[in-house]
Amino acid sequence: MKIAFSTFLFLCSFLYAQQDTITMDIAVSTERTLPIGVINFEIDKSDWSKLEELPQKTLARDFQLSGRFSVIELEQYNLLALSRVQAKHYVTGKLSMSEGQAKLECKLHASASREMVKGFVYTSPVEQIRTSLHKCADNVIHQLWGVYGFASTQMTWVSRINGQKQIVVADYDGFRRRQITSNGPNFLPAWSPDNSRIYFTSLRNDKTQIFERVLASSQDRLLFPQIDQTFGPSANPRDGTLLFSTFGQSGTDIWQGNPQTGSAARLIYGRHIDVSPSWSPRGTAFLFSSDRGGQPQIYMASRDGSDVQRITFFGRYNESAVWSPDGERIAYCSMDAGRLNIYTSAIDGTDVQKLTFEGNNERPTWSPDGMSIAFSSNRSGTYQIYIMRRDGSGVTRITNAGENTSPAWSNNINIGGIP
Amino acid sequence: MKTLLTFVAVSFSLALFACAKKPQPIIEVEPPVVEEEETAYVPPPPPPPPREDPLEAERRRLEELMNRIMSEDVYFEFDQATLTARARTVLTEVSDILKREPRFTILTEGHTDERGTESYNLGLGMRRAESVVQFLVNSGVSSNRLTRRSFGKEQPKAAGSSEEAWAQNRRAAFRVQITN
Q: Containing domain of residue B136, as a range?
């Protein structure tokens, strides 16, 4: 049994490695999606009222947002409907509740034979059903794609609450939002590599300062108090050190600091505005914006601030760049005719693609698997958070009310297995 | 603006309170030099009521000056931090007051309109504050009386997305404090 299991693990890692190299081809073939059916779960009608949303809805959204599937939702099994969209698989299951506990059975079936390919069972408190559904979605993605999706990830962003900007954390799909700051205004949030804390900028003391909030606590901690004004942190995915901006003698500079020890040193400086540092996926280099050439453009530097190279050459205002998880591309905002839009380009600045076209579109952030990009947009009249595929298709709004800006996607701590 | 005024009123009355509590602050109350310049500066001073508390009179005089500085916002062009001719006139006036009132320290706040990103606008706001501070230093105000902050686009003065609102929001504003 043990041997069988390790063989399975070995095969998995092999499969994973293989899939990783194939990802490039998928990108080239303009985001082909896999059709999949989601069939209504079996639920006792008396339990409906305890649910925020029916399980099939949550699951269908996970598949849609994953950027990997086109979803057909069915009330019951219907081979004709599944075949029409060439869905080779469907997911369905059963949800039962008793005494505050929920048991979710989630099954992946082959469409034609109706045979179960894989089944998952989760038991949780009723309030945690969404967590179980997200795990189910990630397991199905792993089964069919050989890689882990992001259905179990979180998102942090800025919500205007009682007129003041506050940091919130929610499931990546916008559900189960919780406010984590009360003193404000707060903005520009970023995750620590292990998702245990959020770094953010606050004006609560009437100047920009970076604070740390350990999510399990209720205390904010001021970072780098020796520096008068700091903002816009980005955490190194490997060692957790922060890059951030400060106001120097004659310009806005970029510093690197250790949030644990409090030590900090200047990396990028001069008579220009140098802002929006963002680490590379392996933490060996970073992107930032600088107006050293007259207008803000995206630059890249080595982790010690040396070897600065300009990346963007198209457009007159390019800002807020973030590196894709595979290290191949960047996403950033560009202003034309007074409006900000999201673009991506190859890491050398070539192959520029415009992804958004309506309203202002700001603060792109990659999903941990690099398939999708979240951003904030005022296309509906107010600022809300959206998720789209990395080619700009499949735009889905995940917030509905108030004002929501500056999303930052959590890191994927599921890699290596879904609990 | 209202909050600013309240802030001043509060901070000044606090300063005053602190003064009154200390054993020997009465000496600082009316330096004759200041008195002289006051008549040169503030147009017709209202004849003081017969037995007005001299502390009270000084408080009112300083408050007027502070309010004057704080109502003098300096405006900028889009994505610019260079001082316009109008801005220079305003700043010369502020600089004159500062040179006459050595106890005033000034916090300059740089702001931007809503266009562009939060981060870049924080940098731009600071550049505006820096232009103002540089002008005041060049005109003879000691740099250790001048501090700078940027609020980027986080604290607009005028709401809305019109050219008019934007013009109001691309500004540097002052907060004045009195040191003893």
A: 2-42+53-178
